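Consider the following assembly input.
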Amino acid sequence: MRVAAAGVDRLRGFMAPVIDFEDTVVLLGRFPALAGLTMSVDPGHIVLLRGSNGAGKTTFLRTCAGLLPVSQGRARVLGFDMTVSRREVRPHIGLLGHGSQLYDDLTVADNLAFWGGAVGADSADQRAALEAMEVSPRLWNISVQKLSAGQRRRVAIAVLVARRPRLWLLDEPHAGLDRRGRDLLDGLLGAAAAAGATVVFASHELDRAEVVADTVVDIGGGRTLAATSLPRGTAGEGTGPDDD
Amino acid sequence: MMTELFVDAARVARKDLLIEWRTRVTINQVIPLGLLIEVVFAFAFDANRSLLEQGAPGLFWVGVLFAGTLVVQRSFTVEGPDGITDALRLSGFRPGAMFLGKAAAIFVELVVLEVALLVGVVVLFDVGLSDPLLLVATTVIGTAGFALTGAIYGALSLGVRVRETLLPLLLIPVVAPILLGGSRALEAAFGISTQPGWNWVGLLTVITGVYAAIGLVAFGPLMEES
Amino acid sequence: MSGATDRGDSRHLMTSSVATRILGWVGLAAMAVMALLGLVVSPRDRIQGEAVRLLYIHVPTIWVAYGSFVLTAVASALYLWRGSSREDRGRHYDRIAGAAGEVAVLFLALTLVTGMLWGRITWGVFWQWDARLTTTALMFVSYLGYLAIRNMPADIEARSKRAAIAALLAAVNIPIVHFSVEWWRTLHQKASIRSDRNSEITGDMFATLMFSLLAFTLVAAWLMIHRYRLVRLEEIREEEGLALAVSARRAEGVNA
């Protein structure tokens, strides 16, 4: 806990943190998936969550998205108090989970129009997002069901791009993507962080992830075990910690 | 503010209808099932012409109720996968817009179902039409009530593992008054009964209004957690 | 996490107290007295004969059931509107709503069974499509749905919230169903047989009816209090388990 606290302190900048958890407990049924987690992330950072299966990474991401109630402790995301109200934060979140977030029976373009339209992304934004993930235009009018797993993943990421979230929460974003897809994603995350957005992602593919991230947070047993700054990631601009 | 609500509701409805258009579940499966229900009733009543004619309005609504429950079921099955339910919560759509949008799409699908069922009832049970306006008013308002109620209970059973059985148990007792009012009004519209039918349309309107109001208030909390 | 430690300090807690033990015995005695009054002391009715004795169960149980439904609805409304601002997050209201709902369904089942037996003897049929009967039957099914929601496996707060909404919907639905069924019968059938016929209950019969209302109310109260306490104990057990679960969870991280 000492180590964790020291590491967390190093993350703090002079700006208000985007994520500010203190002794946060989150229950899944009766199971405390987060058991007093403390973490603070400043804007513009790209944070890699590292930890074994069941460490609490996914629960942490879902809590940040305002999808799970906080049982004990403090939790603020983008300035919203998650213990009181976790609805307001949601439209500012881009969450890439394990499950498909696309309607299988709709086309790629329909999905973009529906999810993007909800936050006012116009058709130019939608097209740009698909192009950014290099989803070939011949797929735009094909139903998602017929896409390969990797293509779906690209479309799901394109939906996030079109929605321009202030906080990106990604669970194993590289899984299922080919080399080119991963490069595109890394580029997008770097650009988002450079533009002031914040990225938190969980990954097991460390050699890949550590290139993008500027900070690594180790999670285990529903708590923060350690936080380490990395030498500036390839794409991360922003306020990298300066103590290495 | 208000227009935004309806614009978003239209987006949700359009999405649901697009899914139906692409998959044709209502057209290819639910409508034939509704017709099958009518035919099975004819078997049960031993194809007794006068009995079937007398019972036609009720049998029509029974078909709507059971086949319609499947329409509601289907409407919430597409929102069932974890990723979709989460994405809807994060989408920025207001709960009221989701409620009205889902209800509107269910309404449109039910109307298509009802047109088929009406033709079926006229052909199979040999009923005539004496008051077309009453027929239209009854089915439109009764269906709106059913669609709104269905959207509320669909959300209530969203994410529940036993949804397939829970939804009919919850929904059917609640829409029983629609069956009752709708059947009596249609008896007048078909000229089977001389009782006034428009009173029942009044009752259906009240039911529709009540459930529209409830849904707008309750849909937020219902979508909140699973 | 073993079962024994999980139970923690809640082991010595029970669902009974001195007051409810007395209440239980008084209720039991009242039921015995009611049986005596209803079966022996009170006279047979001039029109209904011995069947009138069924009404000493039928009428009080429906009153208690209706009262419990009102309690469920009020407690559910309080849960939705006041629950989040309370320290216990409205668990108190939720437990009242659940306990009352269960008792109401039980008593309504008694009402329906005794009513059908009474109908068979008096009308010659088990079931009349009369407004009260039909409404009651639909209500019974709605509240079975309510209990189904209460028992579904889900996060406790999500489940309570949905159950509360379902309870309010069921309550709103009672007048709608009643009105439409009432209207349906009056328009389409010669005046149906109404239970008004037993309005001539006086004297010993009236006293017996009132006494059995008291007896059933006592039993309902006893059942509700115990259901409430049982649910509370289950919740306490879960909360005591939580502290252990949190430390066990933290240890996972150290060992990893």
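Residues 85 and 91 of chain B are 10 Å apart (CA to CA). Ask yourself how this observation constrains the way the partners meet.
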